[in-house]
Task: structure prediction
Amino acid sequence: MKIEDFIADFADQFDDTEASEFTAETNFRDLEEWSSMIGLALLNMCEKSYGVQLTFDELRAAQTVQDLFDKVQSKKG
Result:
């Protein structure tokens, strides 16, 4: 799994934020569009696209896209 692919999938969960705004260092909670619904979409994306179930606590602990990517990587094995 490459971070670039993860960022593209991550950006797809946002309707109003341009994909070009997302990098590994993006603090997604600071985005105007961030909401609990997008959080649920991200959890769903991780499960469907990467076969990894994250908890709400794990999502809450992540601040950046890289944080979330690292968590998915660690659970993927």
